[in-house]
Amino acid sequence: VSTQSTGILRLAKTRAISSSCIDPNIGLTPDQIEYREAALNFAKTELAPYMQEWDQTEEFPVETMKKSAELGFGGLFVSPEVGGLGLERLDGSVIFEALSQGCLTTAAFITIHNMVNKMIDTFGTDDQREKFCSDLCTMDKIASYCLTEPGSGSDAAALVTNAKKDGSKYIVNGSKAFISGAGSTDLMVVMTRTGGKGPKGVSALIIDTTTPGISYGQKEKKIGWNNQPTRVVNFDDVEVPCENLLGSEGQGFNLAMHGLNGGRINIASCSLGGAQQSVEDVLHYTQDRKAFNAPLNANQHVQFKLAEMATSLTSSRLLIRQAARALDTNEPNAVSLCAMCKLYATESLFKVIDDALQLHGGYGYLKSYPVNQFWRDARVNRILEGTSEVMHMLVARDLLKHL
Hints:
- By secondary structure, the chain is an alpha+beta fold.
- It contains twelve helices and ten strands.
- The chain has helices spanning 3-12, 30-47, 51-57, 62-69, 89-100, 104-123, 126-138, 252-288, 300-328, 334-359, 371-379, 388-401; strands spanning 143-146, 162-166, 169-180, 187-193, 202-208, 214-216, 230-241, 245-246, 290-291, 294-295.
- It has a four-stranded mixed β-sheet with strand order 1-4-5-8.
- Helix 5 (89-100) packs across helix 8 (252-288), helix 6 (104-123) packs antiparallel against helix 8 (252-288) and helix 10 runs antiparallel to helix 11.
- The protein starts with a helix and ends with a helix.
């Protein structure tokens, strides 16, 4: 069976779980159900048939992402006045979950693009919003987010890429690491040091990737996320107009963290979509696969394992959606809930996918079965947008500050 046929067949079975305890539509409004159906249909026709091929050829599916923008997926949270849909975080979570059932990696990159677009819409000037957001919403231009550096990952406030003001421009020097889409995107929001040490010395700049002085390292070879390029980005006396400062000087770290709060919900939602599809696939596999003269799911151990997987899936979904609601309504505990949902969901859902692979037996280890790719693609979600260890710190900090 070809990888395209496999993708079509597995998502054709998706509606079989309707009304079951793992039905993603439970608790959604009619509008949200429509959003999910639109995203799932796109995942079925435009993502799933090509997911494995893109992984093997390491193709960055720019044209497919532009097709997703025709449905509004390039500016989910952006104001309608500049071309966005103006949706809430919960709506976006539902959409990213559904897209990830077709291709987790492509959906994850679309979340990053949306994070940048939302940052510009929220903190940018009217001129910046008009100049950048419309093209980002249509994905005629694609964006990267640049925070991590070779020497500063979790300790993001220790970044050293600097931007020195020189008249009407900033001169940027330094390097960023692990940048998704690097070398294939059109603009970047880059966190730079314009002041002293620590978070208050960080500012955000919108930088056109065609600006002289920008260069890239080799494309990284990764376990997963193979159909989006990851590279080091180097800045060598890159001149950036002062009008491209996002927010005010010294506000960059707060902007970066604001973007990551939503990003953590989005990435958790991608893990959720990958796990949802893996569970649906393994339900059918254990029904069809025979061992000892009976379907695999006649074995009580297998039944108990499926029940555990379903429970993890549903509890993760509840926590993700609670965090999304908290962020939508600016609840005081929103930051810790975003950290909590990212921690719990990415960890527990990776185990769900791992269990699905195990239940497939040797077939789960073959690249012709999608579960192995969901396993590889979901692993990094425990690292990016804040590692699980940092999420522990954020949750504990919230608990202790109330003593």
